[in-house]
Amino acid sequence: MFINLLNPVLSDKRTEMKSDEEVVKLYLETQDGRYFDMLYNRYSGKVFGKCISLLKHEEKAADAMQDVFVKILLNLSKFSGKSRFSTWIYSITYNYCIDTIRKKKKNPLVSVDDLANAHDTADDINDSFLLEMNIKRLKVVLDKIPMKDKTILLMKYQDEMSIKEIGLMTDKSESAIKMKIKRAKQKFKKVYKEIYKEL
């Protein structure tokens, strides 16, 4: 458990069945760490999974997960409820991991935001190209494209988030998100062709 290691977890079944938003409200009202423990227990595995998929190192992912939950705890009062709590948590997780990678490389990645409103004449790439790809090849190509592009593709296709959810998470318009996804898929396909000489 992350917090209040000596305190028993709330065992009331009615409490356990409360929504994330209700548990957040209870924690903010009572400051009872056991409510935060409930959120930690619900999401620690998923957050760790996201951290390890982005950072590629188990120990670093474990450290990142703890840092992410500290950020969540410190910013819980800022959760507005405009998006799902899970979306809000994943936003913090993705942003933390991307910042960690940027600091490590000391070379901030170019954002595709600047291209969001650019005129685009390239053909769109069918989702089936990504969804039907060999898993090994998929991982290889994802590791070769910029982190911003990899992240948005993972949100869309691995986490199955909607355009609206991604927009809320990144504070971008839905049209900008659609353009970011399109650009990311184009970069993915370009790298795939360079590596495997196909398509």
Please specify the SSE layout and strand pairing.
Elements: H1 13-16, H2 20-30, H3 33-55, H4 58-75, H5 85-105, H6 127-131, H7 135-142, H8 147-158, H9 163-170, H10 174-196
Helix pairs in contact: 2-3, 3-4, 3-5, 4-5, 5-9, 8-10, 9-10
The low-confidence parts are: 1-11, 107-123
Total strand segments = 0
Gross CATH architecture of the largest domain: Orthogonal Bundle
Mean pLDDT: 77
Secondary-structure element order, as H and E?
HHHHHHHHHH
CATH topology of the largest domain: Rna Polymerase Sigma Factor, Chain: A
Anisotropy-based shape: globular
Distance between the termini: 49 Å
Question: What is the domain total for the residues?
Answer: 2
CATH level 1 class label of the largest domain: Mainly Alpha
Q: How much strand content do the residues show?
A: under 5%
Keywords, separated by commas or semicolons:
199 residues; mainly alpha; Rna Polymerase Sigma Factor, Chain: A; Arc Repressor Mutant, subunit A; globular; 67% helix; 0% strand; 2 domains; disordered N terminus
Note down, in words, how this protein is organized:
This protein has 199 residues and is mainly α. It has helices spanning 13-16, 20-30, 33-55, 58-75, 85-105, 127-131, 135-142, 147-158, 163-170, 174-196. Helix content is 67%, strand content 0%.
